[in-house]
Specification:
mainly alpha
């Protein structure tokens, strides 16, 4: 790879040193850390066995992490899980806004065409009426949209999650905070991936959701 140094006269010595760490059967965690430190000190490209062992060790340490304080975001996994819920709530609000605009267009188009089926017009009007309310209604609808999901929460908290994510996107220092890892890696950490999330009940007619 581009960051690996070309072959040099000390390769044999370095390989011997790294193999000594590899063959240590006791204090495995320390030997892995020592091997990585050796690569860092001598600007070496870690061998595949060391990369694999380091990844396994870090995943294990993260899973066994003990929080130093109380709360839902006390540890690395807890913080990521909370961010995961926040982005899901943000997406729900965006989707509700998109659906509301679509419902308005559909009703307007249906009312301008006399031949439009009455039953379909009534259905579109019912959907549009579902969105109406005070300025908190869209967050309430977004909360209903997540019915049956782990990210389900009240409308006030939904608004807070949406604004937190929105503000993060506009801040260069936190713009990548809500990047999602692939499902394979998340499962190794004991977390749900995108395909593992509860499907919820959003396949029901949205205008029938009340909680």
């Amino acid at each position: 790879m581009h960051y690996c140094k070309p072959a040099g006269p000390l390769d044999e010595l370095n390989e011997r040193e790294l193999n000594s760490f590899k063959n240590m059967t006791h204090h495995k965690e320390l030997s892995i850390a020592a091997a990585m430190d050796y690569c860092d000190e001598h600007e070496l490209c870690p061998p595949p066995w060391l990369v694999a062992a380091s990844a396994e060790l870090m995943i294990d340490l993260i899973r066994r992490e003990k929080a130093q304080k109380c709360g839902r975001t006390a540890g690395h996994l807890a913080r990521y899980r909370q961010d995961f819920f926040d982005i899901e709530r943000y997406d729900a609000v965006i989707e509700i806004r998109r659906m509301r605009k679509k419902a308005r267009r559909n009703v307007k188009a249906a009312q301008s065409h006399p031949a439009y089926p009455k039953s379909r017009l009534k259905s579109q009007e019912k959907m549009l009426a579902w969105f109406k309310g005070d300025n908190m209604r869209e967050y309430e609808c977004a909360a209903m949209y997540l019915t049956g999901r782990d990210a389900k929460i009240g409308r006030e908290a939904m608004k807070a999650s949406y604004r937190k994510v929105r503000d993060s996107f506009f801040n260069p220092a936190t713009a990548l905070r809500y990047s999602l890892f692939d499902d394979r890696f998340l499962r190794k950490l004991g977390l749900q991936g995108l395909t593992d999330r509860k499907p919820g009940t959003k396949w029901w007619p949205l205008s029938d959701l009340t909680c």
